[in-house]
Every structure is written in C-alpha cells, then in structure tokens.
Write a structure and sequence with these properties.
2 helices, alpha+beta, 71 residues
C-alpha cells in the first residue's frame, strides 16, 4: 500500500497518509484485508488500493467493499 501511495501521490502523499495507515487484519484464505486510515486521507488510500496491480509480482485486483467510521 505504501509503495502505491508513493508512486501515485509522491513523497508528500506518503508522508501524509503513513502516520494513520494500518493493516488491522489480513486473511489469506478469504482474501479479506482490513485497513485503517485517517478520514482526512481516505481518498488517497482508497485510490492507492484501487491502483495496485501486483503484490510480490503476482497480479491482483483490490476492491473496497465496505467503509466504516469505526472498527
């Protein structure tokens, strides 16, 4: 996620998002990943997730399926 933020929004975008960016849970079997980010930088994080095409040289497609104000 950090690489995508930096590639698409530069060092400034990464510096803004990084303090609040957390992967809270990842389940390899279901493919579910819960990411936490400040509301202020939600659009940057969402766009960065959407623009990810490969993870560890494996093609993938990420989609945000739910948005919540709390965990």
């Amino acid at each position: 996620i950090q690489d995508s933020v930096k590639r698409n929004f530069g060092q400034f975008g990464l510096a803004a998002v990084l303090p609040s960016l957390q992967v809270k849970r990842f389940d390899r079997d279901s493919g579910l990943c819960i990411v936490r980010v400040s509301k202020k930088y939600l659009e940057v994080a969402w766009a960065s997730l959407t623009l990810i095409e490969k993870i560890n040289n494996v093609e993938c497609h990420l989609a945000v399926t739910h948005l919540s104000g709390s965990l």
